[in-house]
Amino acid sequence: MSDSKQSVAHGTFPHYVWGVIDSHLQTDFPDIRNRSTIHSHYGTCMVIPREGDRVRLYIQLANVEKDDSNERMDRSKITPKMLMDSARQIFSPYKLNWPDVEWWTIYIVSQRYASYFADENERIFIAGDACHTHSPKAGQGMNASMNDTHNLAWKLAMVIKGLAYPSILKTYEFERRNYAKQLIEFDRTFAKLFADKPVQSTDEVGVTHEEFRSVLQMFNGFTSGLAVMYEPSLITGRVSENQSLAEGLPIGKSLMSQVVVRHVDARPFHMHDQMPTDLRFRVLIFAGDCLLPAQLAKIEEAAKALQALAKRYTPPSGNYDDVIDFITVSSNPHAEYEKESLPSFLWQNKWKLFCDEVAIDGSGGNAYRRYKIDKTNGAIAVIRPDGYVAQVTHVSALGVKEIDDYFANILVPYT
Amino acid sequence: MSDSKQSVAHGTFPHYVWGVIDSHLQTDFPDIRNRSTIHSHYGTCMVIPREGDRVRLYIQLANVEKDDSNERMDRSKITPKMLMDSARQIFSPYKLNWPDVEWWTIYIVSQRYASYFADENERIFIAGDACHTHSPKAGQGMNASMNDTHNLAWKLAMVIKGLAYPSILKTYEFERRNYAKQLIEFDRTFAKLFADKPVQSTDEVGVTHEEFRSVLQMFNGFTSGLAVMYEPSLITGRVSENQSLAEGLPIGKSLMSQVVVRHVDARPFHMHDQMPTDLRFRVLIFAGDCLLPAQLAKIEEAAKALQALAKRYTPPSGNYDDVIDFITVSSNPHAEYEKESLPSFLWQNKWKLFCDEVAIDGSGGNAYRRYKIDKTNGAIAVIRPDGYVAQVTHVSALGVKEIDDYFANILVPYT
Question: Are β-strands B379-383 and B353-355 bridged in parallel, bridged antiparallel, or unpaired?
């Protein structure tokens, strides 16, 4: 960290203490094999069914001495017996019995994030626990940290390989610090919710069952990582009127996978399985209705412009898709057309042409509908190497011009 | 082989010769990435798409010298060039080009099976190529051989472990020789079909496209192994009026898997994944509607009888399901009842209670319908360790009596 830029922690000191026990718990609680949360007058407990007969309990400790000052809590005061006693109160009238304790620990919830995630020259970066700490309840310690380092890694790799300009490194702190801030704000709401007493109606001071449920459901977005939405930057387009071409591909959010059918052999594939994390940007050409001459003309001009784009960023000795991968999805089923009726740029790699249709196993057929793309006119989307939607545009030469402009600020041209 | 019992071959000597080439074939044939069969005036060719860009062609050689005598064909006369020339004629007007030949071979189709698969004392057994040879077209050489040895292995293992009576060994030859005979008879029909010329109408001498297709579809049963149906024996019940309790579980055929939902955690599972090949017989209790008092009474008497059955064959130190595994599937969804409302024998292992309902991912909910089991009255099925349906009966003490009788001839009791 440079002297001129100190990374200091923003946030609160311990207020919430959680105990965790892994065991082959014996109980008559009927939902013990389901992910469930018990919100009681004696505190809150989360049930995480694990492999085999194992169960993890997250138990909120209501009666531990806390300290509003900056002093650390005394962990040595807490014993597994205290965790079990709390859990028994929370589960009552159901019985709990621990034949073993495989592992246990105490989490002291500090909700803090650092001022900076990088020095001003983008030479030193911090990630994970070094720049944010928060509640362990949804396993976001590990998940947020992996996403930090993934976000950083692909940018560093592309810069080091000379494929991208160093300016993309600035987006690391911009994206991940914002996310840490959002996560911690949400975690605070969530932690308070768990600490509040359950009540029967909104007239009382506390949390009703309905309020509790609704916040838990919002929390699923953070748990799954799908709530992340990156703000506009060098690498993420601004949400413009183009977004209406594919409202199901929100700019700044992770692409949701759909099953599409490969033209050459009619086999169904999840789009995510066609998009490995391999440092390549991806251009998804939802070609629309390629049997309509007017649309085919647009597809042809777009393909010509994309071919020029591919050439610009590809080493002369390389393959056309070494830096940017191109995947085409027609709205027509595979039996309606031969691939040769499309511009060869779109099927020179025959594994890259797909169709939005129901496959023999009943999967697929929902891509255009879920992405809210018009089946006649289609749309083109640019996907970042980490799977986030960067841009949405028209199937036309003008549409590809916008993609040209996007890459001009990011990728180093060869020609 | 004992002197008194010679195993001799039944069948024909070479009449059909097939060539096989694996390569990165280049072609403008549009269906090259699909499993397809080309039946032409120049012969027949099968296309097997393989991993990556590889393609396997099975090419029928029309012009090879054949010999109706018992003499072997001269393989040295055949070259890859001959295979390629034949394939080019068959594919015309599409073009074929071989940039490489990864592997090639010639198959001479001998359709033969042995008189005996075992000596008269059941001490020596033969399996696989030792007792049947036939066309390689559907890969049944390997598949039939694996099924031979699997059929033999579980019987041998149960006898050697002292779990089953040696008399079950007689069913090996009975079951697998019949199958080999059926397969070879079908293969003969199939081989002739391939050799016959394509014609436009049934008035001409030859095979129409429709006839060709329909036999190909029948052949899928042999390819997938699902056409196997074992005749009644010590280990496979006779088809009686009980079959009407579950027409979708044909006695003598392999159980088709359905997705069912586990009661304890509402997760969907394929039944096959709950039935590993682990030397255990399985009793599937399709309990019917367990919310109806009259049906629940039948479930209770059946469970009591099954518990006695389990005890009879289980070592005193063992688990109740060491020799026979019990899996229960209610027609009621999991949310409609607590497992404690059923006899504890059916849920003492909580992972073994399932429900016929649609799971959160949309799978499941078809088990009773596909097995054609009444949702009120249910049915009990006995499944052999190799997954074949052995018996179907009523949910009642009398029904379980039939299961008792079945096992009395097979399993060695402990008590």
Answer: unpaired
> Strand order in B281-288's β-sheet?
B268-270, B259-262, B353-355, B324-330, B281-288, B379-383, B389-393
For A306, the token pair is: 């994309």
Closest B-chain CA to A267: B34
Q: Is residue B130 within 8 Å of B9, Cβ to Cβ?
A: no
Q: How far apart are CA A256 and CA A117, in angstroms?
A: 28
Counting as low any pLDDT under 50, the low residues of chain A are 1-4, 13-14, 69-70
Positive or negative CA dihedral for A119, A122, A125, A131?
A: positive
Cβ separation B49–A265 shorter than 8 A: yes
Amino acid in position A414: Y
pLDDT of residue A3: 44
- With CB atoms and an 8 Å threshold, state whether A338 touches B30: yes
* Contact at CB, B34 and A338, closer than 8 angstroms: no
DSSP string, A152-170: HHHHHHHHHTTSB-GGGGH
Q: Among B66, B75, B62, B69, which Cα is nearest to B106's?
A: B75
Best B24, B264, B337 member to test A by mutation, with max A CBs in 10 Å, is B264
For the stretch B166-191, pLDDT in tens is 999 999 999 999 999 988 888 777 77
If you average pLDDT over residues B16-40, what whole number do you get? 91
Q: Say if the Cβ atoms of A338 and B33 lie within 8 Å.
A: no
Q: What is the C-alpha separation between A112 and A16, in angstroms, rounded?
A: 13
Measured CA to CA, the distance from residue B60 to residue B321 in angstroms comes to 52
Calculate the alpha carbon distances from B245 to A120, B230, B240, B249, B397 in Å: 76, 19, 10, 9, 16
Chain B residues with CB-CB distance to A33 below 8 A = 264-265, 350
Of the partner residues B34, B264, B266, the one whose CB lies closest to the CB of residue A265: B34
How many angstroms separate the CA atoms of B307 and B346, rounded?
9
Q: Which residues of B touch A94 (CB under 8 A)?
A: none
List, for residues A163-197, the tens digit of each pLDDT value.
999 999 999 999 999 999 988 888 777 777 777 77
> Burial level of B211, CB count in 10 A (0-12/13-18/19+)?
middle
Looking at residue B399, its amino acid is: G
Q: Which residues of A17-32 are buried (b: 16+ CB within 10 A; e: fewer)?
A: bbbbbbbebebebeeb
- For chains A and B, CB pairs below 8 A equal 14
Structural domains present in chain B: 9-224 (3.30.9.10), 241-408 (3.40.30.20)
* A198-232 residue pLDDT tens: 887 777 778 888 888 887 777 777 777 777 899 99
Nearest-by-Cβ selection for B34 from A33, A266, A350: A266
DSSP assignment string, B168-221: GGHHHHHHHHHHHHHHHHHHHHHHHHHHSPB-SSTTSSSB-HHHHHHHHHHHHH
Mark yes or no for CB contact A33/B265 under 8 Å. Answer: yes
Return the bridge partners of B281, or none. B324
> Is residue B92 a contact partner of residue B41, using CB atoms and an 8 Å limit?
no
Q: Which residues of B touch A350 (CB under 8 A)?
A: 33
* Chain B residues with CB-CB distance to A265 below 8 A: 33-34, 49
Counts for chain A of helices (H) and strands (E), in that order? 7, 15
> B286 is written with which tokens?
């399709």
- Calculate how close chain B gets to A225, using CA atoms only, in Å: 20
Between chains, do B264 and A33 touch, taking CB under 8 Å as contact?
Answer: yes
Determine the pLDDT at residue A66: 52
How far B319 CA lies from chain A's nearest CA (Å)?
A: 17
B111 vs B182: CA distance, rounded Å: 11
Are A265 and B33 a contacting pair at CB < 8 A? yes
Q: Which of A203-207, B234-238, B348-352 is least confident?
A: A203-207
**What is the nearest CA distance from A350 to chain B, expressed in angstroms?**
10
Q: Do A264 and B350 touch (CB under 8 A)?
A: no
